[in-house]
Design goal:
This protein has 52 residues and is mainly α. The protein has one domain. It contains three helices and no strands. It is elongated.
């Protein structure tokens, strides 16, 4: 059951990153996929990039 919570949390973070990326005029789908691989590190990259 713990693994299910882990996957739900990771997927939620990926969705949040996709919305954050779209707010910075970047591809939400690409950042969603990157976030599935990198997780919190993708969030940090998005936070420190400038808006296009």
């Amino acid at each position: 059951m713990e693994n299910a919570n882990y996957y739900v949390g990771w997927g939620t973070l990926a969705l949040i990153n996709a919305v954050l990326a779209q707010g910075k005029n970047r591809s939400g789908l690409n950042w969603f996929l990157v976030s599935l691989l990198l997780g919190p590190f993708a969030t940090l990259m998005l936070l420190f990039t400038e808006k296009n």
